[in-house]
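Repro:
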Amino acid sequence: MWYYISRGNSFIKEVSLINKEFKNLNLNSSFLFAAVFENPENCKIMLELLLGKNIDKITVKSESPMLISSDIKCIRLDVHAIDTYNVNYDIEAQNYESKDLPRRSRYYQAEMDIASLKPGETYDKLGDSYIIFICTFDPFGRGLCKYTYEEICREDGYALADGAKRIFFNTSGNDLKNISDETIQFLKYFENTTDEYVSSIDSALIHKLHKKVSELKQSRELEAGYMKFEELINRTMEKGRAEGLMSAKKYILEILERLGSVPEDVIRLVMEENNSEILDRWFRFSIESKTIKEFLNKFNDSEI
């Protein structure tokens, strides 16, 4: 099972997303998202609901977990799947506004392409790909429920046809013209994963998915894992408050050291910073990042 630290506007808010009863979690919860969509059938349903087309049999690839402590593991909140036609999908739930989403999608695209092409293979073996963000806010502020980006020629508008798409869904969108009713229902379900909501809609796919979600919510083992996860996070927070700013700095540097060699100037900046809100933000960046370079990009963007 994937155990995950949720994302939010600060570390405090991240933890507040976790402090809910297991039975009341929605799909935008990191823990429930990971538990539900590590199952290939559930992931297939989600993709069909989002993309509005039939998806062939898929395989879900687990990310390698990054160890934060001896008690708890953390991975990015994303699902990486591949179908029988070698189409790659990376789906991530995004619960806080971030101006780095476009560049992050570019990074994920490059990362996916490198992983999908074996050494010695020609570029025509590179499969099509979808980078998908499900946002609980409007990532571009234009009111759309769905923003789809593909490479085109600026001079004449012709598509590059490189097989890559980046799609940003907005659960709070109000432009309903270019998106199916069923996709809209799923976006609402994403933040309202309840029997009451499902009983009010007619999507057979969502009803099927909700049955699976409800079964998972009945799992004593999964609920126990969630409670342990919540307890460990809360204990970490309490310990951090008790030990003060030095503890927060220590946690940031320990996580960064697991990603690679930490530059001396970064160590100095962390050790000299005494603003708890800034340290909370850096802590979140360190959790989200897969490399030191990605952390530095987030750090530099936040300082602009």
